[in-house]
Amino acid sequence: MDMRRFVVEMGTGIDQHGQDDTVAAARAVTDAIRRVCLTGLGEIVRLSSPGDMVVEVQVAVPHPERVRREEVLAALPLGKAKLDVVTGGMLARVLMSRDLGDKTDEAIIANAAVTVLVDMDKAREAWKQA
After folding, report:
1. What phi and psi values does residue 111 have, to the nearest 5 degrees?
2. 107 within 8 A of 94, measured Cβ to Cβ
3. 123: helix, coil or strand?
4. What is the pLDDT of residues 37-66, one digit of tens each?
5. Residue 125 is part of which domain span?
């Protein structure tokens, strides 16, 4: 397989109330993918199904061990997903309100890089058959 990057997009997610690294990470992934329209997958790469693309996600959060991986991957509507969770992101002091679900006075900030890869061997074959 000749896997090549088709697009890389970055996103940021915050959980200000609740201090949940998973929520912040999923929001970062959603933030990244909402700016991308992958028309080239069908028109240029000739991918037969968007489900055939590979989506690699790297998420940086303050507490990677707290991330519920399946919930972050659920933010991706298509593709064969892979997730790498690393230490990073940010903790920012905010107003604490127990009424809003706060456990501490910190907001969890996550960063995500979402990379879409395509198999160029399959793309070349699709062009030969066109």
Report:
1. -120, 145
2. yes
3. helix
4. 888 888 888 888 888 899 999 999 999 999
5. 3-129
